[in-house]
Design a protein that fits this description.
mainly alpha, rod-shaped, 4 helices, 0% strand, 128 residues
Length: 128
Amino acid sequence: MNYSKNVDFSARLTAQAEAKKALLESFKPKPAVTETNFVSREERKAAEREAVRAARLAEKEASVEHRAKKAEQARLAAVAAEQAALEAKRNERKDRKSLEKMDAQARRAARLSAYSRPSSASSSSQEA
């Protein structure tokens, strides 16, 4: 029995080395299961930035398109107002010309009636 307790120095050193190895093994990181669809933080952040850029670009394009539509509507309204003003001017001129023509015709008729002979009186005197 004394023999089993009597261990030489080299055996104690090997036992110590094995114990130290076992202790160090417990501190080593265990092999973890890696995710197959792993996306790094940088890639995720880059994707988020790109999404924000795309959203801002779409918003900017929509704003530019909206401003262009408003400008086109304003231009069309100005053209319509100009056309309406021209049409009103033309109608006013037509009315004025027609009134002048009617006035001239009335003056001509009055002038001619002053020089004309009464046709009913002359025809009755010729028949008798």
